Amino acid sequence: MFAKLETFPAALLELVSAANGAAKAIPPLFPLAANVAVNPFLGQTGEHLAVTGARLARVAGTKMTPPRAHWTRKLEIGEITEADLMDALAAVEGQFAVPSLRDIRTALENEPAEPQALPTVAELAAEVSGIDWPGLIEDRIGAWAAGHFDQGQALWQQAKTGGAFSAWRDFASRDLTPEIQGLEGFCAFVADTNRSHWRCIGRASEKLGVTLAAAPTAFHRWLMTLGGWAQYGRYLLWQAELNGEQENTVTELLAIRMVFDEALFERYEDQIVNRWAEAVVAHESPVIPSSDLVIDAVLQDAAERAEQRALGDRLLRTKPRKAEERSDVQAAFCIDVRSEVFRRALEAQDESVETIGFAGFFGLASAHKCAGSDVTELRGPVLLRPSVTSQADEPEKTDLNRRYIARAKRAWGRFKLAAVSSFAFVEATGPLYAGKLVRDSLGLGGRVKTDPSPRLDPEIDLKARVEMAQSVLTAMSLTDNFARIVLLAGHGADVTNNPHESALQCGACGGYAGDVNARLLAGLLNDRDVQLGLREVGIDIPADTVFLPAMHHTTTDEVTLFEQDLPGEKLISGLAQLRKCLASAGRLARAERMQRLPRADQAATVPYRARDWAETRPEWGLAGCRAFVAAPRHRTDGADLSGQVFLHNYDWRRDDGFGVLELIMTAPVVVASWISLQYYGSTVAPGLFGGGNKLLHNVVGGIGVLEGNNGAPRPGLPWQSVHDGDGFQHDPLRLSVIVEAPLEAMTEILGRHAAVCELFDNGWLHLIAMDDNGKLAWRYRGNLKWTSFKTQTDVTSQVAAQ
Fold it and tell me: Is the pTM of this model over 0.90?
């Protein structure tokens, strides 16, 4: 029985607090089935990049910015100017000791040494013994955790009662591997530990001399050695907190890791005691960035300011198309940067086609059950709890048949993989699979079948449906002048043999495709009773307007229309012309995308990549993302943004009370920041925050991928998602958020949302206000203050004056 925290001594309670703080410093690793992008610096958003650089250098031995040669090249080709450097230096004042421009120039000539993490006891013991104790610890924890956290991949399940620490004690007290390697008596040592993981942390801290001052980064250091296992524990904690529950897996994993080091310290104390004491003293020191880290942060900021000015110039040169009185088609796509390419291509087909950018879950975060399944999929942003529940609308008999077929397939799969029958299976039926192997090798597999139309279950009353529809249309800035066809296009990626498939799906839909959300919204808005209710609140949808759900396949740039979902009496005029426009837009989008894809010598080969089970880059996902624009479409219409900008329609003049602005700044912006920073982390620190090489991946427990056959899951994006073999396809720039809205409204929103405010205050995001002429006019500089946005001409003049 675990002891209650209130029974612990005061000193242990302080260690508990430090352990919980270290747990929050770890980013969550969402399982592969819903592998949404995660900000790897989620636990460091309360501090600046330079401080985070110092912290992660201490606990992980990793640099958080690109090499200086990267900045030197940008300066040489003029992407960064001296004016940008001066502007970035001015922003440092009051935070750290400000380097001079000469210091920056000198630093660019020298690459600082790679940081070294403070050593663990296991690393010190390895040095004196010649035994790879860190590798052994990773292997044994991995062997246990792969079974303990398994989500259905394993044929035999471990007992999971009592929590992670209890399960590990049972495993480790019988695991002789450490003793065979030289750690005598380890099984008995584990059996002798207290069943409370908190008391084990306290005992190990006392034995190792970890003081309260040293504990925060010492605990963080141990958790970082656990890689994806600690991050998966953080995911469990994230989910528990959403439900108002408690979860201790991360701190239990910390206790497990500390037990190993406690045992090793007992074995090698005489040889490592002095060096370990030095490490503890170093952990006690404040986390303060060196001058090199400050310079690296300035260079990073300068590059982002240069990109912002270039984007501002590009937006000012836009030439919006002349809109007709009423568009034939209004096509709403996800704000995802991949949609920008297709939207631009679609608008080029016909002036009567207008596109809209909106979060891909279309305002309906749903807990959904697909046809023939009892698994609940959370199809909405991970920051939000589902607002509705839904399921596939299918006759009971058809549903039962689907379930019987699925059970037969699962049974057959178990038979193929079982320890004994797998050998007989290969001998007896293996040759029968020759045809399938040929089809898969040639990429001849068919399209994934779509589910029946979804329905809300349980149904919600008419008043609630009207309020929901009003909220979504208002958030889309679509409350009048409806087109004859309003296309609601979710997006998803059809790929083969790709464990990271969900990473290519909709980030706003929890790592799933957005078709369910689009179809639910279309059903809601096509409901005549809902339309009559909307008319009473001032939203008059014409009788000939049809809301048509669809899905944009980002790997092929094809669009599937779900016209079968429409009520029987709905007749769509112009559908043939819409199909023609979509097909032409798809060809144009593929021709643009192929220029970045390795070995894509013609646009016709792009769809084939999605079906090729050996293709490591079916598409680039969101690689290259660098900005978020919330403004009316005419501010960006006609601008070639190269699939690098999240585009959200927003007209503050229609936003009474700025509720929509608040929603954008606290939900889509934060989701986009997670995506941007995941790509950033996977690029600048691939060893720590990247997913490794796809060619070496093995799925473990349905949770993540191992790079090889043991160890910890690799978080983040695979190398092939950011690098083409010759160079990076993602420029690591933190996201620039551009909003056309009054400064006072944005300031008030930031003042109400501290977690969002600190993202901007500490530079993890940039916030820039656009004026009524479409010009970038104001820059948020922190602490709810603004300063004028300096154009390249402004800063150049300032430099000249100095």
Answer: yes
